[in-house]
Amino acid sequence: MKPLPLPRPSLLTNWPRVLRQAWSIRFSLLAACFTAAEVVLPFLGDVLPRGLFLLLAFAASLGATVARLVAQPKMHEVEP
């Protein structure tokens, strides 16, 4: 039995606009920054509570998930 071929991934036609304007992208990048801070800050001392940036990264990831489902009308407008 042959496995089914997987569909080939392709970019959206308006991917530059999505990259600039989509809230899910913004929240994902914010989560990545918080995750990096969680790794780096322990080397700089115990100024902030442990796990703070982990919690912030979790919140930003949830925000990205919600933003992915919420309609963003500006994404579908025609650019001049």
Written description of the protein model:
- By secondary structure, the protein is mainly alpha-helical.
- It is built from three helices and no strands.
- It has helices at residues 15-21, 23-40, 52-69.
- The longest helix is centred in the middle third of the chain and has 18 residues, at 23-40.
Primary descriptors:
54% helix, mainly alpha, 3 helices, extended, 80 residues
Summarize the helix and strand pattern as letters: HHH
Spans where pLDDT lies below 50 across 5 or more residues: none
What is the count of helical runs? 3
Cα separation of the termini? 51 Å
- Beta content comes to under 5%
> Radius of gyration from the CA trace?
18 Å
Helix content: 40-55%
Mean pLDDT: 84
Computed structural class? mainly alpha
Biggest sheet details: none
Quick one: how many beta strands? 0
Assembly state (oligomeric): single chain
Gross morphology is: extended
Summarize the structure.
The protein has 80 residues and is mainly alpha-helical.
Task: Write the SSE topology.
Layout: H1 15-21, H2 23-40, H3 52-69
Helix pairs in contact: 2-3
